[in-house]
Write a structure and sequence with these properties.
Blueprint (H helix, E strand, L loop, with lengths): L11 H6 L2 H5 L13 E8 L2 E8 L2 E8 L22 E3 L28 E7 L6 E7 L17 H7 L2 E5 L4 H5 L3 H4 L9 H16 L5 E11 L1 H10 L10 E5 L9 H15 L14 H14 L45 E6 L3 H7 L10 H12 L3 H11 L5 H28 L4 E6 L3 E4 L6 E3 L5 H6 L15 H18 L19 E5 L4 E4 L3 H10 L4
Parallel strand pairs: 2-4, 6-7, 6-8, 8-9, 9-10, 10-11, 11-14
Antiparallel strand pairs: 1-2, 2-3, 3-5, 5-7, 12-13, 14-15
């Protein structure tokens, strides 16, 4: 499978803003419990009764509305809670994903994308009981694509094996989720620009109101997400008004130190209106534009916007014409981790990390076979395109730290650290500096044997291959985790550590070393694999050279 998403490449910004494939290439029907008999099950929540499905010891409720309509006059405005219903709501099927190309959502029997998408899925052990840890997931796909229904992100295995309650949301993305109208629309559109985040906040309030009915503990909620979901988690972690709604967080390959600002977002708004042929003074006409026209204009604008940094600019500074969270002075009053970690989450433990060869995924989806076949000249050309005469300094440092590495090994390692490692380290350093709650840093070293299409090139520990490991959906041999026999051991370690972190605030797994908190002296890092290991300052030499070549903004 390949991605049709044009925004691929080794680029901190585009890794999250355009990484639709991060959520989608994982989507395959689950093999685990595929033949288990199913039966209907009902539950009562604040809004009314629902009918779900019990399969293999897990109750699943899908397509549950948590927000009211966000189309028509409600377009671009903060959502309101879903209204109560009468009768029994059918929660046996996935709900509508947000507006996007149908090729970028990957749930089984998932409806076509549309505007009214504020639904969520819940998986809970059928055994009953109370006080279970709650894990609320934000899907990947950047700020433009994906859904909570992708089958590799199915919460059944986590719920079944670890006695936790798992929730995954759909929420507005792209123009619908992040168009800023504060400049043109005034007080009526205060809060616009972050409506996609405010949707997730509304879902977290739904969790507080309803999760006890599913056996969950509303005082023990962990928010987590991968790629674009990690970016959203970074932002949620920094919102003072959201702090009472969760107790800890995991940021997977999606660190966000800085987000965009209203002035840049206002430029994007004007560019989008121009794409539709609407003058700024007539901006209200955008409320009457059809959903297909909205999507077409969003795609056309994305095709026009080019990174000004040769494919390397980071997610920390979104450029005009792209969509994502903004510092709005209200919901997100400051950058997530700049200049410091958020004070509102100082007492909330955090896990943050990335995979060893994140960049292999983006080379694959971009059909960049040459990235895996570089010679010395090709390596220098690629790094010089972004870093000029500093490229040789990088190459020398990586060559010294990785004896025997090929030019492609160095390129992929450097690109991966720049894309996800650097922001993860800054996030961890600033969290550790608070000294209030621990931060745990990881690298995933498990190497998928998934191959680049039409080649014998194995993609290794690439971006998004962690999703089936975290959710332990590796029974199918076609996920991004590959089909190595030892994938079950790696998934067992990683999913157990995530679930135990949700339960206790300390990530751990039987038979694996204790995971120490990160600090700036020892920089202890957990390397996650079939056999895990704690390594102090694992990429220390590389970290230090990056601090000189491209210091944090």
């Amino acid at each position: 499978m390949t991605s049709s998403n044009p925004d691929t490449g080794v680029d901190r910004r585009r890794l999250l803003v355009g990484g639709a494939a991060a959520a989608g290439l994982l989507a395959v029907p689950m093999a685990a419990c595929a033949d288990a008999p199913s039966e209907p099950v009902e539950i009562a929540i604040a809004e009314g009764r629902m009918r779900g499905v019990r399969t293999g010891g897990v109750d699943a409720y899908k397509g549950v509305p948590y927000g009211a309509s966000v189309s028509g006059v409600n377009r671009f405005k903060p959502a309101k809670p879903a209204a109560p219903w009468t009768g029994v709501f059918d929660a046996t099927r996935l709900g509508t994903p947000t507006l996007q190309d149908p090729s970028t959502v990957y749930g089984v029997n998932e409806p076509p994308p549309g505007e009214d998408c504020l639904v969520l899925n819940v998986w809970t052990p059928a055994s009953g009981g109370k006080g279970k840890p709650v894990m609320v997931y934000s899907h990947g796909g950047g700020y433009t694509t994906g859904s909570g229904g992708s089958s590799a992100q199915d919460g059944s295995m986590l719920a079944r094996e670890h006695d936790v309650v798992v929730v995954a949301t759909n929420h507005r993305l792209g123009i619908l989720g992040f168009l800023y109208l504060g400049e043109l629309g005034g007080a009526e559109y205060a809060g616009s620009g972050n409506q996609g985040l405010s949707d997730i906040v509304l879902a977290l309030k739904w969790v507080q109101r309803n999760i006890a009915a599913f056996g969950g503990d509303p005082t023990n909620v962990t928010i987590f997400g991968e790629s674009g979901g990690g970016a959203k988690t970074s932002c949620l972690y920094a919102m003072p008004s959201v702090a009472p709604l969760f107790s800890k967080a995991v940021i997977q390959s999606g660190p966000v130190v800085r987000v965009t600002t209203p002035d840049v977002a206002a430029q994007t708004t004007r560019m989008f209106l121009e794409q539709l042929g609407i003058a700024p003074a007539d901006w209200r006409k955008v409320l009457d534009v059809s959903a297909p026209q909205i999507l077409a204009a969003q795609k056309a604008l994305a095709a026009k916007v080019k990174s000004d940094s040769g494919g390397w600019r980071g997610i920390q500074s979104l450029t005009p014409g792209t969509y994502g969270p903004i510092v709005d002075g209200d919901l997100l009053p400051h950058h997530p981790f700049d200049p410091t970690a958020p004070a509102s989450a100082a007492d909330k433990p955090l896990v943050v990390g990335w995979l060893d060869t994140e960049a292999a995924f983006f080379a694959w989806t971009a059909k960049d076979v040459e990235a895996f076949k570089l010679d010395e000249a090709g390596l220098k050309a690629r790094l010089s395109g972004r870093f000029g005469d500093r490229a040789q300094t990088l190459i020398d440092a990586y060559r010294s730290d990785r004896p025997g590495a090929t030019p492609s090994d160095i390129y992929l390692a450097a690109a991966s650290y720049y894309a996800m490692g650097a922001g993860s380290v800054v996030t961890a350093e600033r969290k550790a500096a608070q000294g209030r709650a621990p931060v745990y840093v990881y690298n995933i070293a498990y190497r998928s044997n998934r191959k680049m299409d039409g080649t014998d090139i194995e993609l290794g520990a690439m971006h998004a291959s962690d999703i089936p490991l975290v959710f332990n959906t590796v029974a199918s041999p076609t996920t991004l985790a590959g089909d190595r026999a030892d994938r079950f051991a790696a998934a067992g370690n990683i999913s157990t550590m995530w679930a135990n972190f949700a339960r206790t605030g300390r990530p751990s797994a039987p038979g694996q070393p204790a995971w120490p908190a990160y600090d700036v002296k020892t920089r202890q890092t957990m390397v996650l694999d079939v056999a895990c290991a704690v390594v102090p300052d694992r990429f220390g030499a590389e970290r230090r050279v990056w601090a000189k070549v491209d210091p944090p903004q």
